[in-house]
C-alpha cells in the first residue's frame, strides 16, 4: 500500500473509484434491509422453491451442524403445506431461517439474498419479543442457532458471531446442556440425543467464531461432561431403546461426530493462538501440529471405513471436514510464515502454510460442487479462510519472484499459475454474488499486478502504474456488479448519484469478509 500512497491522491481514479464502490455498497445494504421491526408474515415462496431451499439446507449446513430432527421437521413441513389454517409460528420462524440458509447454495449468484435478509429480520423480530424467553427449551436453542448461522452466512447484523455464541453458550449451560443427559432421571433417547446434538453444535460454533475474530474460546474441556452424539440416524432415536450404530456405519450424525473427535486438538490450537502470556512457542506449535494431524487421521479413517459399508459421506461432508481441519493447521503455522522467509529453522511452517493454503483453495474452488458454491456465496468462516489462503499463496509467490535474480522470466508450476489466474475471477464472483465490500477483490488485484510487474522486471515507477491500473480496473468491475445489484433491488430507481466522498475513512484494506 505504500506504493499506492506515493502515487495517488484524493482525486486519483483509484481512490475516487474505491470511494464510489464503498458508497454504492452502503446503498445496496440499505436497500436490502427491511423496516425494523419486521413482523413475521405467513407469506411463503412457492412449494417448489421451498422444497429446493429445504433440500439445500439439509444437504449442507445440517450435515455439519446437527440442529433439527429431520423427521419431525419434515412432518411439520408437510402438515403446514396441507393445511389452510395459520401455521405454527415457532415452526414458521425455523422454516424462514432454513430457507435463508438454503438460499446460499440455491444458485450460483445467491439470487435470493434480499429475501433471505428479510426472513432473518422476521426471525430476529419474533425472537426479540419479551414473552419468548418464557419458552426456554430445545426449540428455543434450535431457533437461536439457526438465527446465528443465518446472520453470519448472509451477513446480517453488526454483532460478531463470537459475542452471539458466548450468549448462546451461557444460555445452554443455564439449561444444563453441559451436563450429560445420563444425569437426568429416566430420560428418553430422543431427548438425550437432541440435547447432545445441540450442545455439540454450540461447542463447534463457539470454536469457529473465535477462529474468525481472534477471541478466546471461553470454554475448556473440563467445563462440560456431555458426551458426543450417538451414531444414530434420525429415525432411530424415535424408537424405544435404540442401539447406536458402529463407527464404521455412516449415519446422519457421522460427520458431526467425526468433527467432534478433533475438537480437543482444535480447541488447544485456538487457545495457543489467543494466549496472551505464553506467546508463540514453536515447540508447542510442533506438538499441536502432530496432535491435530493424529486426530484428523482418526476422524477421516472413520468416514473412509463407512464409505465401504453402504451409506457414505457426501462430497460436501468430506470437503467441509477437510477444509476445517486445514484451516486450523494453517492458523497454527501462520505466525511463523513471515519468519520462515528468512530463517531456515521455520521452513516446516512455511511448507505447512503453503500446503494447507493450496489445499483449502483447491477445495473452495472445486467448480460445480455444493461446497464451492457455499464458500463463494456465503460470508464468514469459510469464505474468509478461502480468501486468506489465496492471499498467503500470492504472498509466497511474490516472495519467490522477488528472490529470483536471473534475467529470464520466473518459471511457475502449472498449479500455482492456475491459482494466480483464478484468484481475481473468484473475488469478483463473490462481489457479483452480493458481497458489498470490495477490499478482498482490490487487494487480490493489487497483489497480482505486483507479482506480474516483478516477473517482468518492471521499474519502481512501472510497478506503481501497473498496480494503479489494476486497482482502477478492480473498482470498475466491482462498480458494474453493484450497479446490476441496484437494478434488481430498485428497478425504478434513478441513476446512481455519487455522494460526497470521505477520503479520511476506511482506506484500511483489511478484508472483512
Report on this model:
The protein is mostly helical. Among the domains are: 33-158, no CATH class; 179-313, no CATH class. It is 63% helix and 0% strand. It has helices at 2-7, 13-32, 47-58, 61-64, 70-82, 89-102, 113-127, 138-154, 161-174, 189-213, 254-261, 263-273, 282-306, 315-333, 337-340, 347-364, 370-377, 381-403, 414-432, 439-455, 460-489. Mean pLDDT is 92; it is low at 498-505 and 507-513.
What integer is the average pLDDT? 92
Helical content (DSSP H or I, runs of 4+): 55-70%
Beta-strand portion reads under 5%
- Written as H for each helix and E for each strand, in order along the chain, the element string is HHHHHHHHHHHHHHHHHHHHH
Uncertain regions spanning at least 5 consecutive residues: 498-505, 507-513
Beta-strand segment tally: 0
Rg calculated over all Cα atoms:
24 Å
The biggest beta sheet, please?
none
Task: Please report the number of helical segments.
Answer: 21
* Structural class determined from secondary elements: mainly alpha
Q: What general outline do the C-alpha atoms trace?
A: globular
- Give the termini distance in whole angstroms: 20 Å
Amino acid at each position: 500500500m505504500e506504493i499506492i500512497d506515493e502515487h495517488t491522491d484524493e482525486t486519483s481514479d483509484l481512490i475516487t473509484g474505491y470511494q464510489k464502490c464503498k458508497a454504492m455498497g452502503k446503498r445496496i445494504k440499505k436497500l436490502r434491509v427491511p423496516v425494523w421491526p419486521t413482523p413475521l408474515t405467513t407469506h411463503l415462496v412457492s412449494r417448489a422453491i421451498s422444497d429446493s431451499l429445504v433440500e439445500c439446507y439439509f444437504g449442507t449446513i445440517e450435515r455439519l451442524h446437527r440442529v433439527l430432527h429431520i423427521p419431525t421437521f419434515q412432518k411439520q413441513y408437510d402438515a403446514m403445506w396441507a393445511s389452510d389454517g395459520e401455521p405454527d409460528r415457532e415452526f414458521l420462524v425455523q422454516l424462514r431461517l432454513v430457507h435463508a440458509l438454503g438460499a446460499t447454495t440455491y444458485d450460483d449468484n445467491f439470487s435470493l439474498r434480499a429475501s433471505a435478509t428479510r426472513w432473518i429480520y422476521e426471525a430476529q423480530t419474533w425472537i426479540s419479543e419479551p414473552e419468548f424467553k418464557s419458552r426456554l427449551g430445545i426449540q428455543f436453542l434450535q431457533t437461536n442457532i439457526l438465527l446465528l448461522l443465518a446472520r453470519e452466512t448472509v451477513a446480517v447484523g453488526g454483532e460478531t458471531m463470537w459475542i452471539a455464541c458466548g450468549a448462546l453458550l451461557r444460555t445452554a449451560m443455564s439449561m444444563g446442556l453441559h451436563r450429560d443427559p445420563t444425569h437426568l432421571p429416566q430420560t428418553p433417547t430422543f431427548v438425550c440425543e437432541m440435547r447432545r446434538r445441540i450442545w455439540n453444535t454450540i461447542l463447534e460454533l463457539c470454536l469457529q467464531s473465535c477462529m474468525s475474530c481472534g477471541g478466546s474460546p471461553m470454554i475448556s474441556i473440563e467445563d462440560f461432561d456431555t458426551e458426543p452424539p450417538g451414531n444414530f440416524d434420525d429415525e432411530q432415536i424415535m424408537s424405544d431403546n435404540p442401539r447406536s450404530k458402529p463407527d464404521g456405519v455412516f449415519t446422519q450424525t457421522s460427520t458431526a461426530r467425526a468433527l467432534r473427535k478433533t475438537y480437543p486438538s482444535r480447541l488447544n490450537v485456538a487457545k495457543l493462538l489467543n494466549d496472551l502470556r505464553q506467546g508463540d512457542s514453536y515447540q508447542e506449535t510442533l506438538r499441536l501440529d502432530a496432535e491435530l494431524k493424529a486426530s484428523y487421521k482418526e476422524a477421516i479413517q472413520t468416514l473412509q471405513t463407512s464409505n465401504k459399508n453402504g451409506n457414505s459421506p457426501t462430497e460436501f461432508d468430506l470437503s467441509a471436514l477437510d477444509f476445517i481441519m486445514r484451516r486450523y493447521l494453517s492458523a497454527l503455522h501462520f505466525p511463523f510464515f513471515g519468519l520462515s522467509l528468512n530463517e531456515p529453522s521455520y521452513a516446516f511452517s512455511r511448507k505447512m502454510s503453503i500446503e494447507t493454503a493450496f489445499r483449502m483453495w483447491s477445495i473452495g474452488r472445486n467448480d460445480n460442487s455444493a461446497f464451492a458454491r457455499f464458500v463463494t456465496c456465503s460470508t464468514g468462516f469459510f469464505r474468509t479462510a478461502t480468501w486468506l489462503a489465496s492471499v498467503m499463496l500470492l504472498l509466497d509467490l511474490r516472495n519467490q519472484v522477488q528472490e529470483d535474480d536471473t534475467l529470464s522470466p520466473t518459471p511457475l508450476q502449472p498449479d500455482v499459475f492456475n491459482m494466480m489466474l483464478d484468484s481475481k475471477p473468484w473475488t469478483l464472483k463473490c462481489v457479483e454474488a452480493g458481497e458489498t465490500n470490495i477490499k478482498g477483490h482490490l487487494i487480490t488485484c493489487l497483489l497480482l499486478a505486483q507479482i506480474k510487474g516483478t516477473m517482468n522486471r518492471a521499474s519502481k515507477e512501472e510497478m506503481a502504474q501497473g498496480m494503479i491500473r489494476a486497482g482502477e480496473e478492480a473498482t470498475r468491475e466491482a462498480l458494474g456488479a453493484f450497479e446490476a445489484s441496484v437494478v434488481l433491488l430498485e428497478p425504478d430507481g434513478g441513476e446512481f448519484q455519487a455522494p460526497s466522498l470521505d477520503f479520511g475513512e476506511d482506506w484500511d484494506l483489511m478484508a472483512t469478509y
